[in-house]
Amino acid sequence: MVYEVWDVVHLPAYPNQENPNETTARPAIIIEDLQDEVELCCLTKQVQQASKYEYYFIVKKDSSEGIQMGLTFDSLVVIDRTIPLKKFRLADYIGSCPQNII
Fold this sequence. Notes:
The chain is mainly beta and 102 residues long. 6% of the residues lie in helices and 48% in strands. It has a 6-stranded antiparallel β-sheet.
């Protein structure tokens, strides 16, 4: 599958922050295409942890943005915490980031 910058994708196994030996499925936003890798901004349902971060925003699953992004839960997006990931590890396309979020 061909992915584009600002696509929202499903990561089937992302290392859990609290316990790196466990993995969690989560959505992520592709923010940069690096040929065989992409730079991702991961989303979490832990919106109550927003105060721990300097740069973040929350997307409600039932908002027009959440629906366009394909979210199934209210999501915390921490924009200053990104990760590189090989493209072959990406799973399904679930939506796209609306222009007002970009």
